[in-house]
Amino acid sequence: MTMAEALRDPIEPPPGAGTAIPKLSVRNLVKVRRSSAGSITTAVDRVSFDVHRGEFVCLLGPSGCGKTTILNILAGLDRPDEGTALLDGRAIAGPGPDRAVLFQEPALFPWLSVAGNVELALRLVGVPAEERRRRARGWLEAVGLGRHADEQPHELSAGMRQRAALARALATDPDVLLCDEPFGALDAQARELLQDELQRMWVQGEGAKTFVFVTHNVREAALLADRVLVMSAAPGRLVEEQRIFAPRPRRLDDPLVSRVVSDIHELLMSEVGKGAAS
Amino acid sequence: MRRLARELGPPLAGVAGLLVVWAVVSAFAGEDVLPSPAAVWSAFVRGVSDGTIPEAAAKTLIRLAFSFVTAIVIGTALGFGLALNEFARRSIRPLVVALQIAPSIAWLPLAVIWFGATERAVVFVTIVGAFPSVTLATIASFRQVPPLLKRAGRTLGAHGWELYRSVIFPAALPGYVAGLQQAWGFAWKALMAAELLLSAVRATGLGHLLARTPQDVPALLAALGVIVLIGVAVDYLVFTLLDRRIRGRRGLLVSG
């Protein structure tokens, strides 16, 4: 297989995914938005895709392309106007701890300590009190916040807060992680550290977790994803699918990764251009 | 210790300044117009030692505690209900706002018609004075819970009552406590006014002391001083410290 083939592989489930029901499935999803002035725009326009168990999929597109809307529908926080969103073949009825969400902002509860935030997540899925403390500590150690467990969220840096949110999301051992540009608001260094961390944890988890990761950052997508779904400017449609085979842990200077970056970048620029011209 | 000095220094300096101005004015205007601080102090000591002030303060505080707790219960229940139902909120909230703006002492004549010139009339006016603040603060504090935190709670598996318990109530707490602090001020004002105006009835509160001693200006000022002190003490020791604790924990205090 040449490199070009490796990059432009047609839709085909990754090895191991088999013919099983996809973990997440989106069919002809449509979401319209009503502005306060009363005009109606299509935010998501007949989008369909599957995400297989253990797959890391990035939804990539210019801002306003509806990628966050799709993620919210998968999280059960929003409902589609048309089409279906399925989890394990069943319609998604609402949010649940089987699908953890990492928001752009950490969304930590400011009245609880860092450990308290993680313990709350564990309490909500029925973990007994004495085990909650131990497991919360464990997850905070895992994201490098062991020494900050008893601090309040506001005492942490922005990057550390997002780490704490990651610990809270992973603590309940969800099947699916839905990430809405979780590193978008961080400085470059904190972002790189967290991207590395996320890769490492995903590799350690041996594909047990399914990721849908929304970003507008091409490098981030190329670094993290098995598959990148590229969306057009509004109304959001899927315009391209790129499978990335570069081995993990990846680095941005990996030629395979940088090749993907420049390909997607080119595509995205033309999409943004279309959006601006229309 | 140094923190305490830094905290209490300026207000104590203000009080000292007031005493100086007071003494000077009193010296020029004459003791019969404005008694000197020393005269008021001795009236206060007299009032305490003969039992009038402690007795009146105790009666007043019992009345106040009952009225304030009742106002909190009514105000919170109503506010919570109105926070949940939009139609009810839009129809009833304006009435509560109107009630809060109106001087609560204006209800006293009606209260006397309903309950007679009794303790119950005084308590009624105090409750009516205090509960609208609690209701409005309850509504506002629920509506100001950041949607992101609710969404985060829901994705962690909290819904229904559990979402209230673990996310919405704690998130609403700072605004609610601020409402209680405001309600305390309203309750205290309403109670003093009602006691003052209904002084004929079982004349045993601090407000009655004001009415009973019009010729004895030092005793009048001593009673006034006790009223001011109780108001400030509760406001600071209960509400300001509680508010600071809650906000400090959440990083909402501006330092320096």
Q: Helical amount among residues of chain A, as a percent range?
A: 25-40%
* Average pLDDT, all residues of chain A: 84
- Choose one word for the global shape of chain B: globular
Number of helices of chain B: 10
Backbone CA Rg of chain A: 19 Å
Low-confidence stretches of chain A: 1-13
> Largest interface, and how many residues on either side?
A-B, 28 and 22 residues
Number of strands of chain B: 0
> What about the largest sheet of chain B?
none
Question: Summed up, what is this model?
Answer:
Chain A contains eight helices and ten strands. Chain A has 278 residues and is of the alpha/beta class.
Could you explain how this protein is built, in words?
Chain A has helices at 3-7, 67-75, 114-124, 129-142, 158-171, 188-204, 218-224, 255-277; strands at 24-34, 40-51, 56-60, 82-87, 90-91, 99-102, 176-180, 210-215, 227-231, 238-243. In chain A, α3 (114-124) runs parallel beside α5 (158-171), α4 crosses α5 and α7 (218-224) crosses α8 (255-277). By secondary structure, chain A is of the alpha/beta class. Chain A has 8 helices and 10 strands. Chain B is mostly helical. Chain B has 10 helices and no strands. Chain B has helices at 2-29, 37-49, 52-84, 86-101, 108-115, 119-143, 147-155, 161-197, 206-212, 217-249. In chain B, α4 (86-101) crosses α6 (119-143), α5 (108-115) packs across α6 and α8 (161-197) packs antiparallel against α10 (217-249). Chain B is globular and about 70 Å long. The interface between A and B is medium-sized, with 28 and 22 residues.
